[in-house]
Amino acid sequence: MRPENTEDNILETRNLTKEFKGFTAVSDVNLRVRRGSIHALIGPNGAGKTTCFNLLTKFLEPTTGTILFNGIDITREKPPQIARRGVIRSFQISAVFPHLTVRENVRIGLQRQLGTAFQFWRSERSLDVLDERAMELLEQVGLTEFANTVTVNLPYGRKRALEIATTLAMEPELMLLDEPTQGMGHEDVDRVTQLIKKVSAGRTILMVEHNMNVVSSIADKITVLQRGAILAEGPYAEVSKDPRVMEAYMGTADAELQGH
Fold first, then answer.
1. Contacts of 13 by beta carbon, 8 Å cutoff, 6+ apart
2. d(C-alpha 174, C-alpha 86), whole Å
3. Which listed residue, of 62, 73, 121, 250, carries a Cα 20 to 30 Å from 53's Cα?
4. In DSSP terms, which residues pair with 26 in a beta bridge?
5. Could you tell me which residue ranges the ABC transporter domain spans (predicted)?
6. Under 8 Å between Cβ of 177 and 206
């Protein structure tokens, strides 16, 4: 078996640890996310998945450990620096303007990427050049017909598609999706799952996801966290049969882990 080429990894953590007043939320995590893959982070509630995401996007500083992106140590960088490198987390730029249209929200994502984020004094006409790209992104996520819909009136599942479109507007090299199908019905879950698969072409996705059907159908690799530490790692077929993983889900996930 050939040794893993570290250049294949877009993101790597070494002994990543976060402690809160004596409580260890993330413990000695060595995560390797392969370039061009869909990598899922799963685990029971309280496993440290969100804390891990917050460390990667620099909303939290690690107590100890190192984070490498494209081989560069980004451990002490601030959230805007991380975003400029192409690490974009979906909620960071979600549709925060509910009374603007779907197209206007995507256009704001495009402005942020251009670094003209909050120059609302600019004439409306000067932003029209972004419309073509905005419509391309909306087509990509299946929202063309909703372009002129005021975002607050968008159906729930379509709002997640809009979040993905605004994330794509930032030209991410690594997309971090936090519970992308949470609170959705089957039809929306299926649509968003297929959408994630579609937009993964040419980029890398790291996602926290509870829905095992989603994980089993699109993730190339799965990392299972328990009490802040990595319990198991590998392809879904392997991880789902791991007795330690089943036990971590305390029996309640036996059916869940089999994708039912």
1. 29, 30, 31, 55, 56, 65, 66, 67, 68
2. 6
3. 250
4. 18
5. 11-252
6. yes
Residue with more model confidence, 113 or 37: 37
CA distance 110 to 240: 39
Q: What is the CA radius of gyration of the chain?
A: 19
- Any bridge partners for residue 207, and if so which? 40, 177
Q: 136 in helix, strand or coil?
A: helix
Q: pLDDT digit string (tens) for 41-97?
A: 999 888 999 999 999 999 999 999 999 999 999 999 999 899 889 999 987 656 678
- In the chain, what are the domains? 1-86+173-260 (3.40.50.300), 95-171 (no CATH)
What does the alpha-carbon distance between residue 154 and residue 218 come to, in Å, rounded to a whole number?
A: 26
Comparing CA positions, the residue from 152, 57, 151 lying closest to residue 106 is 151
